[in-house]
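Appendix B, record 7
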Amino acid sequence: MLEERIESLLNVLEDKSVGIAVGVLKDGDVIFKKTLGLSNIEHKVPVKNSSVFHVASVSKQFTAMCIALLEEESLDTSRGVLDFFPDLGRHTRKIRVSDLIYMTNGLPDFYDVSQYIMGMRESDFLTSNEAYALLKRLRWLQFEPGESWSYGNSGYFLLGRLVEIVTGLSLNEFATREIFTPLKMEDTFFRDDNSRLTKDIVSGYCNFNYLHPGSFKVPVEDTEMVCNALDLMECAGAGQLWSSIDDLLRWERNFHLNALGVDPQALSRKIISPGILGNGKECNYGYGLFLANRKEKSIVMHEGGCLGFNSVIYRVPDESLSVVILANRNDFLRKMLDRLGVETYEAIADEILEGSSISAGQKSKPQTEEELTEDWLELMKSGDKWFAERKNANICRLFVDEGLLKLNMNGEEIFTLTPSQGLRFEERDKMFRGEIKRDFREETLSIIGDQEPKLFQSFLEPLSKGELSEYSGSYFCEDVQTGYDLTVSERGLLFSNTDPHHDTMDFEYRPAIKDIFYTFAPPYIPCYFSVEFLRDKDHTVEAFIFRDYDNDGREFLRFSRV
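Structure tokens (predicted):
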């Protein structure tokens, strides 16, 4: 029975307290709807069909729909953003409103800066005006507007404010009038006031380690060890839409047979049409929607993840199919992927379209063992090998796991390698190849793939406390009004924000290569996070910058020694 097969997919999660609401719409009819777990753990309140979840970045499609509706009136998305935000800065003069919609704007993500640079907690109170003031201080772009694509929140935050500028109504007021009320979505709203009382609101939860991270500690895999995750943000647009499974199924029925707007058919085509880059290529992102293909079918979808919540709306338009999942844990979708070996919503769609049951815990094909050569056995007998690349601050670790040679890149992706003689290797799927070279007992790692070759240096020997003291002291960044005190620890440097409340980046940073240090604090920071120290003409340390390997521009924020 279909219902039993879908429930079996959801039941693979060990922690039964996780609050979940799932709905499936096919050909205009709700063919599956189920709520599981607890809306509030403390009071043992079960999830109901009317329970109101924060849907995080799934909010973006609602913000984009507001813009699309305004376009039917008079809004011209080819206009520059400075027409609406004249104080945003001259560096934004080439950004058009359409670049905000399609995420081709190049703006730095104000959430990333506030959290991973300024050290603000994800649960900190942040108003729309405070977020806008921060964005005005970030005076750089990641790329030339219209020439590239990068996922971010700043553009959709500005779109939310743009609705207010154009209409004189808040984003929530306009969306309520034009979307929620016509579709009878009575439990849906953009939250721009975190003190508002909401019936059936769901409490969010995080794994203990996410809210209490420690650098270089292995996270405790105890799914029962959870904490309250209070979301106090008031920055509607990129997020902060709250809704129920019943309301979102109404939204999905409208997606497949749109009744909104002056010309519903044209509006439907617009929102799922991809943005076009300057080189003529599509960016695979529409109006707050990811556009993809799977199993030769077009897919329109968006996930959402934030403090205490996960969500997804997954659509197969040609099959008139929608899958909606809401959960009150920020790692729900990742844990389900780990257990199923396929995304939960994809597995549900497959059950309906193909009847292909995914067994709990099913993974991809087992790997065949690639025997290490004598050269590699000799090299790896002393343990893992660590390397860092100065140009883009990539950090990688070579290690052996169950007889297989593997490479962990930036703490995010693990690749299985096929080793060969002479300390050469090739990634199993031939994505790249590489080699380790030795020169006067120094080891370097080169990696060659589709992009330009990367050259990595081996990590330094541990620095003495005297050597580490060269970097200690107080540093301050005028652009974001944030400072850090650096003190010597046993194995590196302890960073302490001068504002004790903004402590989320207060970790131990260990030396990698000369003047570059890194930290690792999963699950809060799921990747290696680096800083680089800068020297003056006399080779004295005078500043540091946070480095990035994905070109998000954080190195523009200079923390000068004071």
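Remarks on this record: The mean pLDDT is 92. The chain has 14 helices and 29 strands.
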